[in-house]
Structures are given as structure tokens and as C-alpha cells.
Design goal:
The chain is α/β, with parallel strands linked by helices. It folds into two domains: 177 residues, Rossmann fold (3-Layer(aba) Sandwich); 124 residues, Response regulator (Rossmann fold). It is 43% helix and 16% strand. The chain contains ten helices and twelve strands. Helix 2 links the parallel strand 1 and strand 2. Helix 2 runs parallel beside helix 10, helix 5 packs parallel to helix 6 and helix 7 crosses helix 8. The radius of gyration is 20 Å and the shape is elongated.
Amino acid sequence: MSTSDQRRWTKFGFAGIAAVAALTLAACGGGPAGAGGGAGDGGVEEDDLRVALITHQAPGDTFWDIVRSGAEASAERNNIDLLYSSDPEASGQALLVSQAIEQNVDGIVVTLATPEAMSSAVQDALAADIPVYSINAGEDEYAEMGVLAHFGQNEYIAGQAVGEQLNEEGSDRAICVIQEQGHVGLEARCEGLADTYDGQSEVVYVNGQDMTNVASTITSSLQTNSDIDFVVALGAPFGMTAIDSVADAGSDAQVATTDVSGDVYNAIRDGDMAFASDQQPWLQGYSSIEAVRLYDSGGYILGGGQAVLTGPAVITPENLDTVAAQFEDGADSDSDEDEQAPDDEDEG
């Protein structure tokens, strides 16, 4: 096992224990009085809570539908009224936080893709005695901002895992496609990839809110550099678009992506995509909302001062069956509003 493998396993192992512990409390209705044990499952009826979940979801980015699905499952189990809102612009997110403060919610869960733009709004929430949690982005900044806990993957480690898998695939030249320039998490993924990748990597920026731009930019890169043998996208919808771009360019390049969806699952199964790195977004939504209930019930904080990591896990054709339960019948769970959340004992 390489040094980077050991480092990634150590961090992921402890994070996995913390995340599983949270789900175990919920499943058993145990833990502090009133936590995770509503009247529906025989536990103590807890007071209602109102929690705002605010993300930087852009139109068409189905990744956040999975996050929201996990959050809704946790809210239902923990007697929480979930208020979901999103804005791809940091200024819009900050405004949504201000609106949540005015609504006097009991907790706020935010993404910190652009921490400097969110700092003032987070401080306003804390000044109003509203606990704040972060998910998905902001692992390096959340603690100094006063955020209680962070749920997500270490983006640099996730990139390292992708770089190592590219080596396994025998790749010599890859492009890392970033759909939102300046997003600290996406930038870190490409940096991590370059750290462990033995081949030559290049960052390509696209406008993630315009799939036509995404497709044409990837196609142009492949036509300009015929020796590119891998396109690494940083989100499931962009990975699917990359498959079409490879075909349009007449390229032999393979495609990989970070984040798994029903479409990505099918693409790996059908041989159209080589692999994907999964950060388990459902678990990010579930755990962060549960964290608000645990803190309200007894001041409990997951992570012990460290981020609670939910990934990465590299999904290949060889281990694809391990996530099959999340995509029953091969359906695209990202777009299915009636999706059933994975069983607690299977998620983690």
C-alpha cells in the first residue's frame, strides 16, 4: 500500500466510523433523549425543528437532488421541517442564509464552495444563536468560520484516488474538466489528480450552466490534442456529456467522472464509462440534518473537530454491484422523485 493510500484510508476510516455511528443512532432510535426516535418508530416524541438546507445547486445539476433526498429522509425520521433552497451564485446563497435567519430556523446547513463570500452570512447566523453546519465544500475553512461540523469528502484525496485509478487504466494524458472556475473543491480535485497521476494532466474550464458550452469545449480539446486518452469530468451530468463529446470528436479517449448517478451507473455497466469516484451525496444530506437533531438534543457534535468524510470510493465495472441497491432496476435515481433511500445498514 502506497503512502497516499495509507493516508487516504486512515482519514476515510475514522470518518466512516463517525458517519456509521450517526446512522446507527437514527436506525435504533437511541442516543440522547428524543434524538432519532419519533412516535413513528416507538421512540420519544421530540420537539419540532426547522432546518434550512442551502446549496449552490445550478439548474440541471442533479447531484444535489441526491443530497436533498438524503436530507429529506433524515428530516422525516427526526421530526424536522426541512427548508431547501439553492442559488449557484455565492451572493444568492448568502441572501438565502439571511432569509433563513429571519425565519428563525433551528439550524442551517450550507455549502461553502466560495467561503469568503459566505463568511459574513455565516457569522450573522451564529450571532443569532443558530448552529451552522457545512456539507460538500469548505472542509479547510469551516472550523475557523465557527461552523460546528462538516460532512463531505476531502476533495484533494478524492482527486488523488482518481489519479491512481488513471494509472491503473494505463492512461498517459488526461484532461480534468472543471465546470465552475474558482470552486475550491473542484480545483482541489484536479490538483489531487495531478499529484498521483503518472501521466500528463491539464485543467479545462467549462461553463457548467451551459451544457452546449461543456460539450463543445471538451470536443474542441479532444480535436486539438489527439493524444488525450482520458476525459475526467467532475460531476455526473458532465461525465455523461463527455461521452457524447468523445464520440463527436471521433476520439478513442475514455471517460471517468467524480460522483455517481443512475446514468453513470448504467454507463459503467454498459462499458461507456471507465470508472467513477463516489462521495456518497445521499449520506452528506442525511448526516448533516441528523447532526442538527443530535446537537439540539444534547449538544452532541460529530467529527471530534475533524470533517466527517463520506468518500471517496472508486466505482469500476469490477465492483459496480456494490452500489446496485442505490440504482434499483438501473433507473436514474437522480431524476426520480419517488426514489427510495438506501437502507441504513447498506449506506456507508
